[in-house]
C-alpha cells in the first residue's frame, strides 16, 4: 500500500504544496495521539475562553489550534494561516506561497463524549512580497489548490483532494503514516439518507420545512421512497459518511438568528467540504449559490450548506 508521501511524489502536486500537506497531516497524527489519551491527559472540558465567534472554546480546540499553528508557521512554504480559533489571520513567511485556512477541531461538542471529531483544511496559492493580509484570503473556494480533513474516529482517516479526484488514507498506528486505502472516491447521484439537526425544524424557511416533510413522509408522500436519517453533530463525520455511502447534509439558514446566513463557516468548513464533494461527483450549495463560487467578504463568514448526492441537492433546491 502506498503512503501519503509516495502518492504525492508520484503526482503532479508541486513540491512546495507537498511539504505543506505533509506538515499539516503530520500534525493531525500528533493531534490524534493527544485525542487518544482523553481524560488521562487532562485535555477534556472547557478552556474557559470564547473564540472570535463568541463560542466557548474547549481545551482541545485550543490545543489542536496551537499545534497546527506552530507547525504551519514553521513551514517555509506557508505564507499565512487563518483558523476558526484565531480572530485574525496569522502571517508566516513572506516568501511562502500558500494560505491555509483550518478548523482545528470540528465537532467540538463531541469531544467530551468520546465521539467523532476532525480537522478540516483548505489551501490556496498566493504569491507576493507584501506581508499577508486578511484580504489575501478572500478568494472563492473554486481557487483552492487542495482541501481535506482528518477524521479522528475508531481509526483516523485522511481524505484529500488536490483537484484530481478524492483519495482516502487510513492512519497505520504501527508506523504513524497515512496509507492509501480508497482511490477516486465517487458519490452516487441518488440517495435515501439525509442529515439535518431536526431540533431546528420550527426555525427553518418554509421551503426547507416542506422538503424535509416530504423526506419524512417517505413512501407515503410524493417522494415515493423511504429515507433514513443520521446526525453525527460533527460536519466532518457527516461528510465522511456521505463520501463513503452517499446521502445529503443540510445546515440551512434558520430564523433563530436571522442575521446569520447559516451556522457553518465558509472558509474552513463549507469550502473545503464543497471541493471534496464536487471532486467526488456530488454538489454543494447554499439556498441560492454554488458554494465554490461565493466571493468571501470575511474570514469567519458563515453560510447555509446543502451538500451531497447531486440529484438530491438539486431536488432540495427545487423546493
Ligand atoms: O450543534 P449542532 O446543531 O448539532 O451543530 C453541529 C455542527 O456544528 C459544528 O460542530 C461546528 O463546528 P465546530 O465544532 O468546529 O464549531 C459542525 O461540525 C456540525 O455540523
Ligand atoms: Mg467546525
Ligand atoms: Mg472547530
From TrEMBL:
Xref: InterPro entries: FBPase_C_dom, FBPase_class-1, FBPase_N, FBPtase
HAMAP family: FBPase_class1
Subunit field text: Homotetramer.
Location in or out of the cell: Cytoplasm
Ligand binding (Mg(2+) 1): 84, 103, 105
Fructose-1-6-bisphosphatase class I N-terminal domain residues: 11-182
NCBIfam families: PRK09293.1-3 (NF006779), PRK09293.1-4 (NF006780)
Cofactor(s) this protein cannot do without: Mg(2+)
Pathway: Carbohydrate biosynthesis
Family: Belongs to the FBPase class 1 family.
Protein name: Fructose-1,6-bisphosphatase class 1
Record Pfam families: FBPase, FBPase_C
SUPFAM superfamilies on file: Carbohydrate phosphatase
Keywords of the record: Carbohydrate metabolism, Cytoplasm, Hydrolase, Magnesium, Metal-binding
Reactions performed catalytically: beta-D-fructose 1,6-bisphosphate + H2O = beta-D-fructose 6-phosphate + phosphate
Coiled coil: none
Domain Fructose-1-6-bisphosphatase class 1 C-terminal, first and last residues per copy: 187-317
Binding site for Mg(2+) 2: 103, 106, 269
Gene3D superfamilies membership: 3.40.190.80, Fructose-1,6-Bisphosphatase, subunit A, domain 1
GO molecular function: fructose 1,6-bisphosphate 1-phosphatase activity
Primary location group: cytoplasm
Record-listed E.C. numbers: 3.1.3.11
UniProt: substrate binding residues: 106-109, 197, 263
Organism this protein belongs to: Marinomonas arenicola
Amino acid at each position: 500500500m502506498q503512503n501519503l508521501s509516495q502518492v504525492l511524489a508520484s503526482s503532479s502536486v508541486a513540491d512546495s504544496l507537498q511539504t505543506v500537506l505533509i506538515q499539516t497531516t503530520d500534525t493531525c497524527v500528533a493531534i490524534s495521539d493527544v485525542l487518544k489519551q482523553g481524560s488521562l491527559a487532562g485535555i477534556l472540558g472547557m478552556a474557559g475562553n470564547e473564540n472570535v465567534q463568541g463560542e466557548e472554546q474547549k481545551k482541545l480546540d485550543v490545543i489542536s489550534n496551537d499545534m497546527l499553528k506552530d507547525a504551519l508557521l514553521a513551514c517555509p512554504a506557508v505564507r499565512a494561516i487563518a483558523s476558526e480559533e484565531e480572530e485574525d489571520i496569522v502571517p508566516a513567511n513572506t516568501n511562502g506561497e500558500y494560505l491555509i485556512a483550518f478548523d482545528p477541531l470540528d465537532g467540538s461538542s463531541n469531544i467530551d463524549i468520546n465521539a467523532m471529531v476532525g480537522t478540516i483544511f483548505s489551501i490556496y496559492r498566493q504569491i507576493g512580497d507584501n506581508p499577508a493580509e486578511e484580504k489575501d484570503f478572500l478568494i472563492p473556494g473554486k481557487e483552492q489548490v487542495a482541501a481535506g480533513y482528518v477524521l479522528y474516529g475508531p481509526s483516523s482517516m485522511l481524505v484529500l483532494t488536490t483537484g484530481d479526484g478524492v483519495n482516502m488514507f487510513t492512519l497505520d498506528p504501527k508506523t504513524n503514516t497515512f496509507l492509501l486505502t480508497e482511490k477516486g472516491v465517487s458519490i452516487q447521484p441518488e440517495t435515501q439518507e439525509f442529515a439535518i439537526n431536526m431540533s431546528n425544524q420550527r426555525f427553518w424557511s418554509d421551503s426547507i420545512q416542506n422538503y424535509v416533510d416530504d423526506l419524512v413522509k417517505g413512501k407515503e408522500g410524493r417522494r415515493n421512497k423511504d429515507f433514513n436519517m443520521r446526525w453525527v453533530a460533527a460536519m466532518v463525520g457527516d461528510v465522511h459518511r456521505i463520501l463513503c455511502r452517499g446521502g445529503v447534509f443540510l445546515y440551512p439558514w434558520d430564523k433563530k438568528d436571522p442575521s446569520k446566513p447559516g451556522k457553518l463557516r465558509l472558509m474552513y468548513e463549507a469550502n473545503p467540504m464543497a471541493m471534496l464533494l464536487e471532486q467526488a461527483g456530488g454538489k454543494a450549495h447554499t439556498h441560492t449559490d454554488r458554494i465554490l463560487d461565493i466571493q468571501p467578504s470575511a474570514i469567519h463568514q458563515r453560510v447555509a450548506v446543502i451538500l451531497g448526492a447531486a440529484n438530491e441537492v438539486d431536488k432540495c433546491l427545487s423546493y
